[in-house]
Design goal:
The complex is a heterodimer of chains A (402) and B (201). Chain A is α+β, with helices and mostly antiparallel strands and 402 residues long. Chain A has 14 helices and 11 strands. Chain A has a 9-stranded mixed beta sheet, with helices on both faces. The two termini of chain A are 14 Å apart. Chain B is of the alpha+beta class. Chain B has one domain. In chain B, helix 5 runs antiparallel to helix 6. The longest helix of chain B is centred in the last third of the chain and has 15 residues. Chain B is globular. The relative contact order of chain B is 0.19. The chains are: A alpha+beta (402), B alpha+beta (201). The interface between A and B is medium-sized, with 18 and 15 residues.
Chain lengths: 402, 201
């Protein structure tokens, strides 16, 4: 017997009721937050300082404004011909209950050229990792298994390296071009990692961004339905009674004066809001919002010349987030190009960049492929007469005892 | 026999084979003769194209309409392919052929070969000379007329018209073909008449 659907349905109904209630409240608070945010337009320098002052002491994420807060830039003209490269990856994680330690990363690769000479190349490249140096990161004394979050980090690195290879072989510089990734360029998963693990993965990842920078290929990532609250974090500062830029004081959540006085913190209004809630309604179709710098520690401290900036973009009913490294963000023409090309990709893809959708289709490992891979592995191990046995737990899950 | 390679076998059995076309939407015409090579040197299998289809390479995938873009622009036909170059990579044109004979060296046989053409082996369009040689006999008519799950009468009529176009003795050939059909369908007058209508010069 699996899921008791009768017992579940009552809880699902309760959930739906609560969701409606929450949404109404959030929309009202988002409007208030937006009004306060727009009132601060023109004072970006001041609030950028407030963000810098609060970076270490605020207990929420922050974004530093780079452009006017009320920026709503119209869609620039899309070049008639351009090329786009994209990669996406999927993985089969290390199976602790399986017979041998290994994992698989499949990278989908896409090159599409539009215009006078339209063409496309789609493909995927699987790689099986099983050597000691693939399974563990080590600094001599300690070693950490590459699984879970760290495997995702490794996949991100592989996606980046594949994108750099693809860009170098496919883009000849004769057309405007864009290199596109899915998800974020900020490697959050490594933020809490041990230093030597961070060195290894982040070093390789920044190496990929450096290759893109050296070749001058605008690189961006696309986040559909972003849930990040970084701009909202900056808006919290606008409400914070403790921020005093002139006195060099930022928000200090541990010493919140509202909380000490027994009041609800003034910024509680922003609780649960995300950037898209606040910025989205201001953007008309194809318009982008202002550029911000993501103030996450790993970005500020480790990314250097690649420091990740982002803007929001309206595509139909969705407000997406586009991330770009500093060397793209500081050249207005390149920002315009990314803006125009990402939007064009979304148009062609019915709301989601077609290059990313194709890369995903190439990368995805379906259930049938997973089973085929497992069989191939078991069969090959058996033929090689390698000692192999699945765990008792796995065996019990595959066959129920009757 | 140096005609153009047009596709590659993706499914193969004793009586029929299916090939993927190298170029999207460029399958040989219905009723045309194609030749598939085999592992044995000099042994080639002949088939008549009875079905052409284009669809997603992904199992279960379906095409979406693309003629009206999000921004309200209208795109027509070839423009849609030009605007979406990735389509050529995710769609595939396939054609299936009914096996009607084989060549071994110089000899031609109008019955089933000892082995079907292997998967991934090449398929070629037959040129006029080859068509002429193959149509010297009409023994394959029977196999086409009585094959199951294919539009056999339509296929044979199309094949006869194609061969007739290629032959200098067009009229004589059609008369001969009609006579052979009459022999095969002597018990089914209606069907014979319908077929003759389809090949009438």
């Amino acid at each position: 017997m699996g899921l008791d659907l009768a017992a579940l349905s009552r809880q699902v109904r309760e959930l739906s009721g609560a969701a409606v209630h929450t949404a109404a409240g959030a929309a009202r608070r988002a409007t208030l937050a937006r009004e306060r945010y727009l009132a601060a337009a023109g004072e970006e320098r001041h609030w950028a300082q407030a963000v810098d002052l609060s970076r270490d002491t605020a207990s929420w994420l922050l974004a530093r404004p780079v452009e006017r807060l009320d920026t709503a830039r119209d869609l620039p003209a899309c070049p008639p011909a351009y090329a786009v490269v994209a990669t996406d990856g999927s993985q089969i994680d290390l199976d602790r209950h399986g017979s041998v330690a290994c994992y698989l990363i499949n990278i989908g690769q896409v090159f599409i050229r539009y215009g006078q000479r339209p063409t496309a190349r789609l493909g995927s490249q699987p790689a099986l990792y099983y050597r000691e140096e693939d399974l563990y990161v080590s600094d001599g004394a300690r070693r950490v298994a590459i699984e879970g979050n760290y495997l995702s980090a490794r996949r991100d690195v592989e996606e980046g390296l594949a994108l750099a290879d693809l860009a170098e072989t496919s883009l000849d510089g004769t057309l405007p071009a864009l290199a596109l990734q899915d998800g974020t360029l900020v490697r959050w998963t490594l933020a809490g990692a041990e230093r030597f693990v961070q060195e290894r993965f982040l070093g390789q990842y920044l190496g990929y961004l450096e290759r893109m920078r050296a070749r001058g290929i605008p690189t961006a990532s696309y986040i559909s339905r972003p849930r990040s609250p970084e701009v909202v974090g900056a808006i919290r500062l606008l409400f914070c009674p403790d921020v005093d830029v002139a006195a060099g004081r930022g928000a200090r959540c541990a010493e919140c004066s509202d909380a000490r006085a027994g009041r609800e913190p003034s910024c509680a209004l922003c609780q649960g809001l995300v950037d898209a809630d606040v910025l989205g309604p201001r953007l008309a179709e194809g318009q982008r919002g202002p550029l911000f710098v993501s103030m996450s520690t790993i970005n500020i401290e480790r990314y250097g010349p690649h420091c990740i900036h982002f803007f929001h973009l309206r595509v139909g009913r969705e407000v997406c987030r586009v991330e770009i490294p500093a060397w793209v963000a500081c050249v207005p023409e390149q920002v315009d190009l990314v803006h125009a090309l990402v939007y064009d990709q979304c148009l062609r893809g019915g709301g989601y960049p077609v290059a990313l959708a194709r890369a995903h289709e190439q990368a995805v490992i379906r259930a049938a492929d997973r089973r085929a891979f497992a069989r191939m592995l078991e069969g090959s191990l058996a033929r090689a007469e390698a000692a192999s046995a699945v765990s008792a737990k796995r065996e019990s899950k595959e066959f129920s005892r009757l | 026999m140096n005609s153009q390679r047009i596709g590659e076998i993706i499914e193969s059995s004793t009586t029929r084979f299916t090939a993927g076309a190298y170029e999207l939407l460029a399958a040989p015409p219905f009723g045309s003769l194609v030749r598939a090579v085999t592992r044995s040197e000099g042994l080639a299998v002949y088939g008549l194209v009875y079905e052409i289809r284009t669809g997603s390479r992904e199992p279960g995938g379906r095409a979406v309409v693309r003629g009206r873009t999000y921004s309200g622009r209208e795109l027509y036909d070839e423009e849609i392919y030009a605007e979406n170059p990735d389509l050529a990579e995710v769609l595939q044109t396939e054609f299936s052929a009914l096996t009607v004979g084989f060549a071994e060296g110089e000899a031609l046989y109008q019955y089933l070969p000892p082995q079907p053409p292997p998967v991934h082996y090449s398929v070629y369009a037959c040129d006029a000379d080859e068509l002429l040689r193959f149509s010297a006999k009409n023994d394959f008519f029977r196999a086409v007329l009585f094959a199951t799950h294919i539009p056999g009468d339509e296929l044979l009529a199309a094949a006869i018209r194609t061969v007739a176009q290629a032959r200098p003795d067009r009229h004589d050939y059609l008369v001969r073909a009609g006579r052979d059909l009459a022999g095969l369908l002597k018990d089914d007058h209606d069907r014979l008449v319908a077929l003759l209508h389809r090949i009438r010069p």
